[in-house]
Structures are given as structure tokens and as C-alpha cells.
Amino acid sequence: RNLHFMPTLSALNVFICIYICSNHPPRPVPVPRNNNSSIISAVDMGISDEEWERLQKALDWPIPDEEITHLIQSTSPVHSTFSIVGLKESYKVGENISVIITARDHNKNLKRYGGDFFKAKLFSTELKASVYGEVVDHCNGTYSVALLLPWEGQAQVNVRLEHSSEVVQILKKYRESSFPRTHFNGYFEGSGPKNTRIREVVECNLKWGADGSWRKGDCCCEHKDIRTGTVWQCERPKNLSCDKLVRHSGGRLENPLNLLEQQLFSK
């Protein structure tokens, strides 16, 4: 029996895992649409109220019980541990083993809240086989996993911290914000005085945000993609009208993370 703890962090796939918390969160509140006058409901999604509530619970993540101001307060993959409950010399195929994960910060202190994104699997390098378990968050810094034993022979347990609870909150914050991470250029061309051609390059971006807009006022031109229905906003050119847009291209990238957030994302 070999037990491994992988002290690695991944920046991908955090929101495709269904997350289950043993505590029952409050009844979910419908999510606002881009239109302030309406909300997204189970009817809009074409599902039942029970399925909608189940999805909302699955997406609910515990949050830190205090503001995180230093990296050492976040979950440490080095100091977090796990153990197999009631470990025996041998098991029968089809049985389950129970694993308890205990999260600690970089000062080796026990975490008091949940929200860490752990993955736990049973695997065999000889058979090239593996099976993942369902991680249950007890919302107090401990997690339990049930792992099925589906084959004969030896097996190893691997627990991996994909994201600390602090990083999960950062991802959630920017996912729900209207921060324009990628900026695009819009190219306008038209006729000028004395049969000259005028070309202007301005900044463009998708029209998005909690209130359904990227910028308000008369600052921008709006253009709708007839194939996808996506609405673009471009800064209004100084000398050309909005209908003179001919194309757009990728521009600069902007990192929304502050220094502490960058540290929390580091491996």
C-alpha cells in the first residue's frame, strides 16, 4: 500500500467537477440575467425545480471565514494529510475503503472551513486502471472519500489538491465579474475629405457584465454578430461613423489578479 499526496495546483477544470457538501446550504436564489428586469429560472433552463436546486447546491462552495491577507493562510498541499479509515491487510473486490482528508494551512494549522478542491483516486500502474471517489466536504477543513475496489491485486491511493478554497473564491469572483480580460482592436475605414481614406483603430470588447453592458453612455458603437447573436462594443471613432467597422482582431491581454492572488495561484 503506497499513499501519495501530490503537492500540485492546476489552473484548469475546477468548475466541471460536481461539488458535494455535507451541510445543506440555504435555498438557492435565482441568478440575475443580463436584463435587470428578469432572472434565470428552472423554466428558462428547461429543467425541473428539483434539478435546478440540485445544480445550485452542487455549485455552492464554502467561503473562508475571514479575509485572507497572506499566502500562509491558504491551504497547503504539503501540510495537508489523508488517511485510510480502518486499514486492513486485504479487501474483497467490490468493497469500499474510506479516506479522510485533513486540510492545513502553510503554518500547519487546521483549516476551519471547507471549499478546497481535492481529487482522490484509487489506481494501479500495473493494470493501468484507476477510479475516482466522490469527495464530501464537511465544511470544517475535513473531507471524506469513498473509493470502490474494482479489481484484484495491489492498489494505491492518490489525493491531489487541484485548488485551495482561497483560489476557488478568486475564480468565482472573476467568473462573475465583467472584468475584460482580453481586449480587442476594431478597425474602421471610410472616406475622408478630398477623396482620402481614413483609418482608425479603437478598442473593442464583448458586451457583457452583471447589468448587461460593458460601458454605459454614448461612448461606444455596438455591433451584433449575425451568426451568433453576440454583441460587440467598440469605442466610438473620432472621425468615422459606427457603420464603418470592417474587422476586428485580438489585442492586449490583461491579468486581473493582484499580487496576493497571483501568489495563491502559484505552485
UniProtKB/TrEMBL annotation:
Organism domain of life: Eukaryota
Signal peptide: 1-23
Organism: Sinocyclocheilus grahami
Name the UniProt record assigns to this protein: Uncharacterized protein
InterPro entries for the chain: Ig-like_fold (IPR013783), Ig_E-set (IPR014756), NXPH/NXPE (IPR026845)
PANTHER family for the chain: NEUREXOPHILIN AND PC-ESTERASE DOMAIN FAMILY, MEMBER 5, NXPE FAMILY MEMBER
Keyword Signal set for record: yes
Pfam families: Neurexophilin
GO BP annotations listed: nervous system development
Keywords: Signal
